[in-house]
Write a structure and sequence with these properties.
Layout lengths: L3 E6 L7 H16 L5 E7 L8 H6 L3 E4 L4 H5 L5 H26 L3 E4 L4 H9 L5 E5 L8 H10 L3 E6 L2 H9 L8 E3 L7 H7 L13 E6 L8 H14 L3 E6 L5 H10 L6 E3 L7 H5 L3 E4 L8 H9 L3 E4 L5 H5 L6 E3 L4 H13 L2 H15 L4 H12 L2
Parallel strand pairs: 1-2, 1-4, 2-3, 4-5, 5-6, 6-7, 8-9, 8-11, 9-10, 11-12, 12-13
Helix pairs in contact: 1-16, 4-5, 5-6, 12-15
Length: about 375
Amino acid sequence: MESKNIFVWSPFTSKIGTTNNVINSSYSLIKFSKVKNFNIKLINVFGEWNNLSSEIEKKNIKTIKLNSIKSINQWNKEGFIKSRFSYILIFIFSFLPLLKLIKKEEPNFLIAHLITSLPLIIFTFFKFKTKLILSIAGHPKINFFRKFVWKLSSKKIFKIICPSNELKEILISHNIFDKSKIIVIQDPHLLIKKINNLKNEKFKDIFFESGKILISIGRLTKQKNYFFLISNFKKLSLKYNDIKLLIIGDGEEKKLLQKLIIKLQIEDKVKLIGYEKNIYKYLKNSNYYISTSKWEGSSLAMIDAAFIGLPILCSNCPTGRKEFINNDERGFLFDEGDSENFLNKFNEMYKINPDQLKIRLVKAKKESKKFTLLNYFLGLSNIIKN
């Protein structure tokens, strides 16, 4: 079988779940290809992948150094303005290097994730033998600039990958891409063997010694809506004295959230523990998974919780959650931002008959297994082999 050279473009300014998916998607092509017919190379645009080099090397993923813009890597990119300024620098300083790389190496495919405007513009105005695959994660805000770039480059894009049918329908409704080009492939998130090892890691924390733990995982940002969660947890704690709330993640709202916890006088009930590399040991020792996000992609932490076997209560925000939970078949959905509905849904989850809950947990775990490397490989390899 003829070898396929695949370059992966995925610069990022802060580590998010998608960065793991980029590594896993590349690894899936290496791991499951019976013949070594996929040559994967990850483009290291400005050194953003250096801190993950050991993980990349373990998975035999090769990298290509694009340029030496150390100033971008050292730049503080937290916040809207600074991150957008970084995007502009990446575009300006990487334009010629990326153009030269594609012309010289002529890979069969370039898969573009995250900050994708540069490859889209280049493919629009230059002709290559390389086929461009656009990977759209999460719930992208389809603003004027993004819609303009997508529309401009749509004819030069070979395929568009998105992780949910809901996102696919949103893209179709905007009439940007030829709908025949849009393919749904669930994120390659679950590494089952690794999870089974990590969840059994021992730890000591007196917070877990009593009560029922509600766990929420994600960056402390406006998107995750932790002010809503903590405020409503206060109301729940007055009714259910045995519950506690654990939040895993760092972010710009940390100090404000800490002040809210003190104001509500629930310091003994709510704990913020920052970023944790191993979330699975905490999931295994918790009782419920809660997410109040305003928008999400496939919600990777929700999938982790479903696989571990926790009851899940999530907002019905776009995109992918309603599809996963499917009318409360595999968990519980509340109307995003609606406090009364959130409290009612928690009550329903807390008081549900154990046998009925078990049915939902089994279905949720089964559905979570769609988010494996093998499933992603099967979907992506069908595209690449064409």
